[in-house]
Each structure stands twice: as structure tokens, then as C-alpha cells.
Amino acid sequence: MSDVAIPAKSARFPWITLSLSAILFVILIGLGTWQVERLQWKEALLATIAARTHSAPQPLAEIEKIWAQDHDVEYRPVTVTGRLLNDRERHFFATYEGYSGYFIYTPLQLDDGRAVFVNRGFVPYDQKNASTRQQGEVAGPVTVTGLARNPLAGKPSSILPDNDLVKNIYFWKDLSVMAAQSSINPEQLVPFFIDADKTPNPGGFPIGGVTIIDLPNSHLQYAVTWYGLAATLLAIVIISMVRRRQGDKAETQPSDLTSR
């Protein structure tokens, strides 16, 4: 009986697989870190929105000063008095509590002759025509309290239909076009919207207080997912390398051969 070492065939080290795994690991860690940064940004944004919405309403003049300085008045409470130009209202296609209909954007003419578009709220689809809700067409001075809203810089998505100006149906809030269709001089236009609060309108329509502040914040889950995938990949690589090393050792162990 003699011990004979059986040489194993030298397998090439998987440098390519290891390199690709390292690149993928770095990408996964990068994605996880990016989501952590997005989480911090989103939490700061939500805190800002909460602080704004819970603050006391300010006169329109104060909100305009903020706009002139920051160009950002989103969700700032505001109060303003004027006269509704009901014959120039614009209709924005929307849903509210599961019903299809329109948000009614009506120019509110101020004492100085300027105008600000007010989202007075929701009306059902069959009440698009103002004649079906004449009680809500308030004449005379009114005071509106609500939230200031930034105008859109452009069409938010290519999948949205174009605004139908002939039928007075808007699918995105194009402030300049809404003003032009309402015969409002751009120089006399307040450069942002106001969403009216839940104060009831005569006759029940429009239904105010339709602003939805519901920003999803799933960045923590995404970060955990990316970091988890990175950890899983690292574990697989380590296990594969350990098994490879153990296999190499086993193949180089001496074997007992019985010679006859």
C-alpha cells in the first residue's frame, strides 16, 4: 500500500465572475445610498409641507412677496378678497372620492384690477355647465381662504392628452393659456393658483378643499432592498470562494492505492 498524491487539474481562477460581481456590488451599494439620500430629501420636503399647511393664512400680498423672492409658494395658506368672474371659469378634468368631474378654476378679480385663478373645488361630470349650479355662482365680494399652488413649468407628462380649449376641458393646469382663454391680461395675472378650502359654497357646489397632499415615501424600503441584494450577492460570492477552496484541498489529498 502506498500513498500517491493525485494532482488535480488546475481550474482557472474565476477572475471575470469575481470582477463582474464586484461591479454589481458597487452598483447595488450606490443605489441603496442614493435611496437614503432621497429619503432624507423626502423627509425634509414633508416637514416643510407640514409646517406650511399648519401655519396661519397670510394675505395675498405677503404670498406674492415670497413668490417674487423664491418662486415657490406651494401649500402656503393664503386669504384674499375679490369678485368671482364666473363667466370665465375653466374646467379641469378630475376625480374626487371616486367620481369623475371637474375642478372649477375661476378668476378672482382683485380691487386693483388684477386676477388670481382659484380652484373653487369639484363638480360632478353632469354639472360642468354653470347653469346647473347657479347658486354656487356667487356675485359680489367674496373672501377665499386656501392654499397657494405653484404653476406648472410645462406639460407634466407626454401621456396626458392636450387641453381641449374648444370644449373648455383642461388635463393639465396651463396658467398662461387659462388666462388667455379667460381674456385676462398676463400683466394683470397673479402668477400662481389658489386651492380654496372646505368652506361650503351656496348650493353645495363646487365642493372645496380638494387639495391632496399625499406624497409617497418608500425610499427606506427601496434602500433596504438594494442593500439587501448587495449583502446577498456578497454572501453568494464568499460561499462560492470557500467551497472552491475546500474543493481544491480535497482534490490534492493523498489517496490510498493497493498494488497487487
UniProtKB/TrEMBL annotation:
InterPro entries according to UniProt: Surf1/Shy1, Surf1/Surf4
Family per record: Belongs to the SURF1 family.
Cellular compartment(s): Cell membrane; Membrane
Entry keyword set: Cell membrane, Membrane, Transmembrane, Transmembrane helix
CDD domains: SURF1 (cd06662)
Protein name according to UniProt: SURF1-like protein
Source organism superkingdom: Bacteria
GO cellular component, one term: plasma membrane
Organism of derivation: Phyllobacterium myrsinacearum
Topology of this chain in the membrane: Multi-pass membrane protein
A Pfam family annotated for this UniProt entry: SURF1
Broad class of the protein's primary localization: membrane
Regions crossing the membrane: 12-34, 224-242
